[in-house]
Amino acid sequence: MYAIIFMILAVFMAMFALFVRMKAMKRPANVKKILIPPLAMSTGFLMFLYPPVREITSLEVIEAFAVGLLFSIILIKTSSFEIRGKDIYMKRSKAFPFILIGLLVIRLVFKLALGIYFEYEVLAGMFFILAFGMILPWRIAMYVKFKEVERQLNLFKSETERDWKVEPENPTP
Questions:
Q1: pLDDT of 8-61, one tens digit each?
Q2: Number of domains present in the structure of the chain
Q3: Which has the closest alpha carbon to 44: 160, 124, 115, 114?
Q4: Nearest residue to 145 via CA among 82, 69, 73
């Protein structure tokens, strides 16, 4: 019963996250918007202070993080930035919503399949590590891509400003 309720909540949370991500693409990106999510999410590691969650083994931690890294590759490949006017925006990808929904479905299938082998708390810890292992490399890659585009924008701005400087024809000594 609880599993079904939590799955329904997970679907609603995923739809909300998808809505927020799609809406965020309409506003200029910045370093804070890229780096705060993994920092804020890292507070979730406090769940491991709860003794039943600590029953997760080192191998399970490595496996969960590795699966998260694999999932992050898809997000990294589909995330890029573009310059619009004087700002940097995340480029809209038609595949992005489908990728997020696909990742949610895969996670739900994993949860259903693994739920009979693991205690609920251990499974929650594993999926948190999986999610963190997915978001951390994705956001680091986004930061690197953002800085690259920001360098291009600053170079373009400096060239534009240099081109518009008017030198006097007869400078006075």
A1: 887 788 788 778 877 777 889 999 999 999 999 999 999 999 998 888 889 989
A2: 1
A3: 124
A4: 82
pLDDT tens digit sequence for 50-73: 998 888 889 989 999 999 999 899
* Residue 74 structural domain: 2-162
CA-CA distance, 117 to 108, in Å (whole number)? 15
Given a contact cutoff of 8 angstroms between Cβ atoms, the answer to whether 10 and 104 are in contact is yes
For residue 157, what are the contacts with CB-CB under 8 A and spacing of at least 6?
86
pTM of the model: 0.78
Q: Which of 81, 70, 145 is CA-nearest to residue 103?
A: 70
Give the torsion sign (CA, 125, 129, 134, 138): positive
Is residue 172 assigned to a domain?
no
Is there a domain that residue 167 lies in? no
Alpha helices (runs of H) in the chain, residue ranges in sequence order: 2-24, 31-41, 58-78, 96-114, 120-164
